[in-house]
What we know:
44% helix, 6-stranded parallel sheet, Rossmann fold, 7-stranded mixed sheet, single chain
Amino acid sequence: MRNSFFISGKNIGYHMKKKILIPILIILAVAAIVVFTRKSDTQKIGLVYIADAEAIDLAKIGLTEQLDSLGLKVEIEYANAFGEPKNINNIVNSFKQKKYQAILALTTPCAQIAQQQIKEQPIVFVGVSNPIAAGLVKTLDNGYENVTGTMSNDPVFINVKLAKMLFPEIKKIGIIYSANEANSQSIIQTLEDSIRVTNMPIILIKKIVNQTADVYPVLNSLVKDVDALFLINDNTTSSTSELIINTADKANKPVFSCDIESVKKGALFTYGLNYKDEGIAAANILYEILIEKKKPADIPVFVNNKYYLYINKVLFEKYPISRKKIGSPFFEVD
């Protein structure tokens, strides 16, 4: 029986095993190359943002943590435009020349300029209040051309309703914003429409600024003419939130916000978004584009509508308001 494996001195069993083994090794080698490429290749990404702000910091944290969780190795160039549109242009052009695999554009102004300048590289916008009005996409059901991203669906009117419930005497609410930002215009329009439709006895006193340096003089005048101040997610004024809160506090005017981080700085409350969630969503979209090779046009816009109620304990210490009056679960901030 042992000799049946030998013909003309050749070991047929050996050669059969060899013929089977070689294709298996080839398959394993190819699989190893695919895995190695997917896991070890570093993707280069450019990230542009309008200015330093708490919401942007949270989005960046969510982004990097989720990229790490997905095993997607990236090298990110962070570029701060310091509130200047001309800086955004220069940054985006630089990203284009460097041929990064993807561009992340945090906030509406950055996303709009990126879309205007870049037609080849994928663009993922983050923290845009109304991407349709901003001209970034045609519908939320999918991206447009090389652009998709995440939408901040701020519940601005709910915050006004909550303010009116807690402070029934409020009649005039002051808002400082930049008319140059499509997201801010959209927020203001939504708020005015909601107040009109519901016949809420509230008057919005709006003040427009073009740059952060304009906020202080406008604020000093505004705080005398209103009963409360509302911090919307406006990129120009976000970096001055602490100034606005402190000035209003000295004038004994309550401040409420759409931003969780502002509550930590002294705003009384917010029913709003955690922008870390949008950073996580942006990382998931990047994975679809870079690893799964999906086109941005085929990826729906992520709509962030997960809300949290945060209340600063100062609300209960400074004003005659009980915790029971809130009527909903909330996070209390020291």
